[in-house]
Amino acid sequence: MPPRELPGFYFDQAKNRYFPLSMRPKPAEVYPGASSVPANAPSTASSLRSVVPAKRSRPGSSSRADPAARQRSDEDAKDNASTRPIAATTSDRHHALRRTCSGPTMRREFHSMDMVHLAKTSACLTLCPAGSALGAPITALHAGLNTDTDRITLVTGDAGGFVNSTTVPAQQFIRPDTDAQNIQDAWTFECAMNLTAPILRVQGTGDRWMASSYHGEAFTMFIKTIQSDQGVMVAYNRLPDVWTSDLVDKRVCLGLHKRASIISDIERTDLALSHYTTGSDVLSVYQENHLLYTGLRSSSLLRFDLREPRLSKPPPPILTTSSSITTIKRVRQHELLVASMDGALTLYDTRFTSPHRQTEPVTSFRGHVNAYKHNLPVALTPSHDALFAAGLDGRLRGWSTRTGQAFSAGINTEDTPLFYTAPPKGSVSLYTRAHAIDVNPFETRFSEPLNALDVLEIEGRTYLLGAAGNRVLRWNLGHRPGFEY
Q: With the CA atoms of 48, 52, 56 and 59 taken in that order, what torsion angle do they form, in degrees rounded to the nearest 10?
């Protein structure tokens, strides 16, 4: 007799029992564009065998022993391989990923491909600022794009206290090597801040940039807006041991001996400095809205809320690293990049930092080399996907901030090409004019560590700028000579 209809159940003829409707096998999906089954199609079992991959046969089975079956299988595999699309270009690979991968998988694959392209960078342009032609090495560098005027501003400061700048159209900056000399000729001398002290840092924010220098107990700032032809120099005396500075809008924070000092408005010289006690030398600072992060020689990282009253004692550290903290940078929304003097590069999630427990990093970037310098440069791409750091061993290394994987070997070998940052005898002319060279920054050892790094993004292109001796090296990331576009 036929099975009875029970609400919420179906009858399985093969197993001769009832099952819930939720367990009913789904019918085969018909995709758009698929042809319908013809009237003379084979039976259901044979048609399933034609579309479902055969299971791996066991040793000694009849299918393994059948040469005709093996030949038919090999021919089918060749036909499938011949019709499978081949991603010959980056665009083809992107389209193939979009067709076959889910959202998270596709983003990971795109990111991995981008890191591979960055590792192959070798298209480089060398520039020599006007004042640096005297031979003083560049110690500070800033590159900025003014979206209102679509012009690029480059500012350098050197060990002799000279500040130089150049402003060129963005299209001229991103063109291939033919316009190199035009960029070189646009350099102008800005000022000589202190002939016995190097430029400490050059930073830009909004429509202004600032160069800072420290000598004795005097901290000097040179401030200039893009619209103005002249800058303003301001000096603050009786400041002990200024190690670093950070400019955000009109506010400057200084890292000093056992305290951090805030200049709330650089356009007003009548305001007194606000001091925050740290208990140890401040080697690095980072400002974010009303928060101030300070990296100390004692390997502690402190966080101050500038809205709260200042205290006579330092607050408890939110985290402690393995050595003195030399760099603090924000990565995306909740992460802090921390560089230590022993070469450690780590990423912390600020949502899980606490003064009352040991904070573990979420990612560690291995391979960076440092032992004693407090100002080795570290830079991030605007998307915060890639990290660059200049090592004490003369190597420039890069990592993915999402995976922590290095896309540069970072190993000193005898086969590693050596790039001289100072001109050998008879080659001075190569170090005082602009020219294009083929140098992979991640597979090259520089004779001296790079003193400054900056990253600039223009019209979808990302440029890495580094200070090597008295020259600025500009790499078009992901490109090689002859493939600028």
A: 20
Question: Which tokens sit at 197?
Answer: 């002290």
How far, CA to CA in Å, does 25 sit from each of 44, 116, 252?
16, 44, 67
pTM: 0.74
| Neighbour count for residue 344 (Cβ, 10 Å) | 20
Q: 179-204 pLDDT, tens per residue?
A: 566 666 678 888 888 777 899 999 99
| Cα 39 off chain centre by | 60
Would you say how long the chain is, in residues? 485
Q: Where does 32-185 show beta strands of DSSP type E? A: 123-127, 138-146, 151-158, 162-169
> What domain range is 420 assigned to?
393-485
Q: How many CB atoms lie within 10 A of CB 347?
A: 21
Asked whether 284 and 295 are in contact (CB, 8 A), the reply is: yes
Instruction: Kindly tell me if the per-residue pLDDT of 285 is higher than 90.
Output: yes
Note whether 18 and 10 are within 8 A (CB): yes
Residue (of 280, 289, 290, 284) closest to 313 by Cα position: 280
Contacts of 274 (CB under 8 A, 6+ apart): 261, 262, 264, 310
- Reported in sequence order, the residue ranges of 251-369 that DSSP labels E, i.e. its strands, are 251-256, 259-263, 274-277, 282-288, 291-296, 300-305, 319-320, 325-331, 335-340, 345-349, 363-365
Rg of the chain over Cα atoms, rounded to whole angstroms, equals 31
The residues pairing with 9 across neighbouring beta strands, listed in sequence order, are: 20
Q: Does 404 reside within a domain?
A: yes
Mean pLDDT of 104-124: 72
Residue 472 lies in a domain: yes
What's the one-letter identity of residue 64? Answer: R
Alpha-carbon distances, residue 72 vs 78, 84, 113, 291 (angstroms):
10, 18, 37, 70
Tell me the mean pLDDT in the region 124-137. 73
- Its sign, for the CA torsion 262, 267, 270, 271, is negative
- Is 481 inside any structural domain? yes
Q: Give the three-class secondary structure for 154.
A: strand
Residue 381 lies in a domain: no
- Split into its structural domains, the chain has a count of 1
